[in-house]
Structures are given as structure tokens and as C-alpha cells.
Amino acid sequence: MKKIIIAAFLFAFTNNIKAQTYTIQSPHNIIKATFLLNKNGQPHYAVYFNTKEVIKSSSMGFALKETYSVKGIQSIKDNFLVSSIDSSLVNEIWQPVWGEVKNIKNNYRQYSIHLIEKTDLQRKLDIIFRVFDDGIGFRYAFPKQPNLKYFIIADELTQFNLTADHKTFWIPGDYDENEYAYTTSKLSQVDGWKLPILSNNPKQINEPDEYAVQTPLMMKTDEGLYINIHEAALVNYPSMQLHVDRNNFSLSGSLVPDALGNKGYLRAPAITPWRTIIISDKATGILASKLVLNLNEPSKIANTSWIKPMKFIGVWWEMQTGKSGWNYSDNPDSVNNKKELFPNHHHGANTANVKHYIDFAASNGIKGLLVEGWNTGWEEWFNNWYGGHFDFVTPNPDFDVKEISEYAKHKGIQMIMHNETSGDAATYERQMDTAFRFMNKFGYTSVKTGYVGNIIPRGEHHDGQWMINHYIHAAQKAAQYKVMIDMHEPVRPTGLSRTYPNWLACEAGRGNEWNAFSDGNQPEHETIMPFTRLIGGPMDYTPGIFKIKGYSNVAGRQVHTTLAKQLALYVTMYSPLQMAADLPENYKAHMDAFQFIKDVAVDWDDTKFLEAEPGDYITIARKAKNKNDWFIGSITDENARETKINLDFLDKGKKYMATIYADGKDADWKNNPMEYVIKKQTVDSKSVLLLKLAPGGGCAISLIPIAIGK
Ligand code: NOJ
Ligand code: CA
To answer: What pLDDT band is residue 204 in, cutting at 50, 70 and 90?
Structure first.
């Protein structure tokens, strides 16, 4: 790792210094942040892209709440003096354990501004700015000090004052749920209680602030500037949502409370997560930004050789679509089976069925297999109010864990454990060691955890401080047992996979599964997700559904894409843990198209964001890790699209065999989603490909070097 820190110096200031604006320029002067204390001594910052104002002067600070032992505590927000400033310039390259690129450049100018109150308390607060060429991050630090020890954050007073009524891609500020469809509107039209279709959104939000939205929040100005607000390194602190002042286009931090309504419990010394603002005049600049990862700590796991990205299949979609069930009582042999109600229904996680999936994975080069419903407790898991009925070590009678593990090992397949906690995170913490030991014993290399429902016992929120610490604890525990982890229903990620690279993926957003049990995801959904949910980290979106219609008994239910677009998602929806979500039989019916899923990589040396517009289209090319193979994914929303792809990123002088998986001539997501054509042609770095995408369609391309002499 190359690290250069130059110009580290210290300013010292006396108590009678005049109000002064400090300017922090990004390394190549593209982004500028300013900082000042106003006449009340309250910190303010502003942000510029070149000379254009992006964030107008915005206040910073905290409202504190008195505790049992500290009465009459005052907010820590004004009456400050700047006591000193440290500054440095960092320019380094680091290599992620896995990722979209092999090398990540981390180049920023940092100012740590040390503030002290002019009051008798003389409490101290530091604000740390990192200004990159693609945006800024800032965080607060509470140094160790005599008059601020244990304290409760009542509110974070950070504002983001925008310059106009920007176009905004948002989901409502729900404290527990992030699996919403995105609404695109002006900021002034944000209204969580007027969400369009109930069945298309998981629930009507039940939080008090209908004008709060979740981050990553994606915006576009009328002048074509793209702005993304999120947070990085969310540790020991609640998640930040944003309250929208619809008249003044001002956003203010709104922290997710605990069950008592308190936001965060801190003890100095303490730091907050980074508040991040990514800015670019190109939509692709937002997708290419590594700012969130750069603001996270390097890996805390010393030996990472056991962490390996992979593709997997699952005894899963068959339950999502009602073909089989999670419950052992779905097995006709079970005494509780309701044969008269469900004559053809069965328990998916039975040994014979699992072996059938292992066989399919093994003969198609898919490394992993997830099995849900393998353990006891599923009969009463949903809307769990008491907890404690899953133990994660007791298989159902028809799931022979020993036989299955041996069979998987023999066939070279890695089993993925499923630990659905149904919100009983407190009990899960006590069960973890036992659960991970069980995984080690039976050779499971990964776990998918789940947090469906209310957090018990006392109604913490999925995005509150207690659960934030729980998710990190789960990732740390998994690492201790050399297990990779994929979390469903956690808080949306904030780049912590850099610090815990065994935390390969999360759901934390509206996945493909919503097409199984609701009105589904509209064709534009996957063109918005990379700008919003994926800004914090990879998503277990579960692409690859080939049987687009007819998998459900509910009339009209279908996947809202063409088959070719499902292939393109392997490139556009980045994840090092990528599911081939459909049933083996549906793949067997289209083995020519399945070839793309077999070939596509899950770990990358390089990524080119060729074109993008949130809500409309995305085209990405990626080079496989340690190989010369390239893969392209191009997707569109409900509109058909033609696009020219210049292959100038290929190695000069080399010939490649391009296999193009395209929408058929008359394909369209609604009426004719399954029509696709596969074409092969020789290309090189001078080639230009014309792609035609159907409404709701996509195109996937593999580019494999042709061996010389062939
Ligand atoms: C919701 C998850 O997203 C899904 O993948 C899983 O099958 C169910 N919970 C059951 O755990
Ligand atoms: Ca889910």
C-alpha cells in the first residue's frame, strides 16, 4: 500500500480570533468545502462543485438529552471557538479483498477542526472533513474530556441545505423497512404517506415523520448535476434518515430512535459515522465513486484467504412462489400436514430435493447452495412475538444434514446456512457461537441471516443503534468462525464490507423476490438501485429468473423484465455473492441462456461505467479478476432503447469472441418477455456494438479472448 501524507501542519488560534471562513479544496480543486462559525459560534459548512454551490451554508451540532445522572445537559452546537486545525493530504492506493476494481485510489485533503466551547464547561467537539475530487465526507468526534462523558444524543443537527427543488429518487423514512419501490419526484413533493400502491410497498409507514426519506438519497439538479447523500462507517450509532423541509429544499439529519425514543448512547471519546455527499456532472461518476468505501477502515480480518466470492443457487424460489414450503408440516409425512388444503404442497428442504439441487450446481459450475426451511420452528416463525423457537442446530426430520454435507463436499459444492431470526436478534446473539460451530462442523462456508418482523423483545428498530451494533457483531462472529455472511432485512450498508470483507452482501432493499409475492418491481427499479441502495455496498438482489410468467397462482403476477435483462443484472447489480435464483428445471429449459450465468464472473479487476441515467438506463463493462474476460450488462426501464457500445476498453490488438444475449425482435417485458437471441461475433478494441433493448429489456455480453492460432 502506497501512502503519501504531505503538508501535515497545525494552526494554533487564540481565543479572540475573528470569524473566519476556512476553505478546503479537493486534491484537483474540483470540490471545495468551506467551514465557519457564525456569530453564535455555531459550526456551518458549505460545498461547491467547481464554483457552483451544491450545499448552501448548513448548520452542524447536536441536541443532547439529560440522563439519570447528568441533569440539565445542554446541546453541543454553539458558543464555539476554533482552538486548532490539523490538515493533511492523503494519496494512496489500496486493494480490496474483492470488489468492482482491483485498485482503489483514496485521495483527499483532510481538515480536523478542533472546537471548544467558550462557556465554563469548555466542552470539546471536533469536526473532520475529507474532501475528495468526487465529493466530501465529514464526521464529528467527541474527544475525551471532563465535562462530557456519558451522553444521549437527542438529535443530530446536521443540515444539507440544497440550492433548488431537485429531482429526487426516494423511499420513505421507515425505521424498520427499506424494501420499498422508489418514487421519483421533486423534493417538494416528498410525502411518505401518499405512497402510491399499498401492495407494491411493504406497509404504510408507521413512523411520525411523513417527510423523512432514507439514504442513499439520489438527486439531480435542473442543470444536470448529480448529488448523492449517504453515510459511511455506521458503527455504534443510529442510522441517519433525512427530514425534507419541502419549502426550503433543506434536509436535516433524522436519527432512528430506540424503543424509548432516544437516538444514540455515546461515551467520549466517540466518533459518528461520516456524512457523505458524492457530486458529479455525470451519472456514471456517482456509480464509479469509491468515496463510501474509502471512508471505511481497512480490513480488521488479517487472513482473508478463506473469503471467496461465488455464485449460488437455492432451495428458495420454490418457496417464494408457493411450489413448496419452509414448514416441516408441508411434508405429507408430518402429523401436522394439511393434505386436504394443499394436496401438492411439500417441504422443500428434504434430502432428495437438496441433492437434486447439488447435482445441478455441480454439473454447471455453480459453487454454492442455500437451503431454507431446513431447521425446526418455521410453523410459527412469522410475526414472532415471543422469540426463541429457532435454535439453528436442529434439522427437520426429512433433512439429513450429515448426508447432505457429505454429498455436497463430494460434489464440490459449498453449503450456505440459513439463520432466519424472525427479528429475535437478542436471542440470536446468545445462540451465535453454537450456530457457527454447527456450520463449521458440517462444512457450511457461508450464512444467510434474516430479520423479518419486529425486533424483540423490546421493539428496537432495525435501523437503530442497538441493531447497528448487532449486525456488526454478527459479521465479527462469522469472521471468528471463518464464515462469509449475507444479511437479509438489515440496515442498508455503509461500506463496512471494507472493514469486514467476510460481510459479502446484504439485501437491505427491494429484491427480485418482490416479484414473487407482490405487484413486484417496476421495470425502472433496477436502473435506480445502483444509484441508491448499492452506493453503500453489494446487494443480494437474486437475479436470474428465467420463467418470467406462470410461476404464481395469482393472476398477473410476473417478473417485470425480459429474460435477457435478468442476465444483464449479473453485471449491473454488483455483488460478490450472486444468486442464480430460479429453479433448475427453468434453467434446463434454456441452457443456451444459462451459459451466461455459468460464465459471468463475481469478482473484478476493472469496471467501466459506460453510460447511465437513474430511472432510465445503465450500461457497465467489467473485467474478471485475474483474467482477460470482459462482461457487459446493459439495461433499460419500460422504454425500448438503442445504444452503441464502443469496445475501446479491450486490449489493443487482441481478438475476442463476443457472445451477445439480446432481447428478441418482438420482446417486451409485459407481453413477450421470454424472446431472446444469442449471437456470436469476433470483436476487438476498434469494434462498436449496436444494442437494441426491448421495453423492460436488457442485453448481456461475454467477451472472451480468442487463443492465438485459432
Ligand atoms: C425474507 C428474505 O428476504 C427471503 O430471502 C427469505 O426467504 C425469507 N425472508 C425467509 O427467511
Ligand atoms: Ca427481504
So the answer is: low
Please indicate whether residue 513 is annotated as part of the active site. yes
Q: How are beta strands 217-220 and 167-170 bridged, if at all?
A: antiparallel
Rounded Cα distance between 27 and 698, Å, is 38
- How many whole angstroms from 439 Cα to the centroid of ligand 1? 19
CA 382 to CA 426: how far, in whole Å?
17
Q: Is residue 488 in contact with ligand 1, taking CB distance under 6 Å?
A: yes
Strand partners, 56: 161
User: Cα 47 from chain centroid?
Assistant: 26
What backbone phi and psi angles, to 5 degrees, belong to 676? -140, 160
Q: Tell me the C-alpha distance between 598 and 365, whole Å.
A: 6
Q: Which residues pair with 514 in a beta bridge?
A: none
How would residue 149 be classed by pLDDT, with cut points 50, 70 and 90? Answer: very high
pLDDT digits (tens, 9 = 90+) for 260-293: 999 999 999 999 999 999 999 999 999 999 999 9
Tell me: the pLDDT tens digits for 407-420? Answer: 999 999 999 999 99
State the helix-helix crossing angle for 591-599 and 563-572, rounded to 10 degrees: 0
Query: Of 201, 204, 197, nearest to 181 (Cα)?
Result: 201
* DSSP structural state of residue 69: S
For the CA of 319, the nearest atom of ligand 1? 7
Distance in angstroms (rounded) separating the CA atoms of residues 358 and 137: 45
Strand 150-156 vs strand 62-65: parallel, antiparallel, or unpaired? antiparallel
Q: What gap in Å lies between CA 237 and CA 260, rounded to an integer? A: 15
Fold of 526-710: TIM Barrel (3.20.20)
311: enclosing H helix or E strand:
strand 310-315
For 478, which DSSP code?
A: H
State which of 380, 448, 452, 510 you would mutate to test the pocket of ligand 1, scoring each by most atoms of that ligand within 8 A of its C-beta. Answer: 452
Instruction: Cite the beta strand spans of 171-249 per DSSP E.
Output: 183-186, 212-213, 217-220, 226-232, 240-245
CA of 507 to the centre of ligand 2 (A): 7
> Which spans in 460-504 are helix H?
465-480
Of 77, 158, 155, whose CA–CA distance to 118 is shortest? Answer: 77
CA 504 – CA 481 distance, rounded (Å)? 15
Q: State the DSSP H helix or E strand holding residue 358, giving kind and residue range, or none if neither.
A: helix 351-363
- Cβ–ligand 1 contact at 450 (below 6 Å): yes
Spatial separation of the C-alpha atoms in residues 491 and 461, rounded to whole Å:
10
Q: Are strands 414-420 and 368-371 parallel, antiparallel or unpaired?
A: parallel
pTM across the whole model: 0.96
Å from CA of 196 to ligand 1 middle: 24
Number of Cβ atoms within 10 Å of the Cβ of 391: 14
| 656: β partners | 683, 705
Domain residue extents for the chain: 2-294, 526-710
Tell me if residue 608 falls in helix, strand or coil: strand
- The third-level CATH classification (topology) of the domain covering 2-294 is Beta-galactosidase; Chain A, domain 5 (2.70.98)
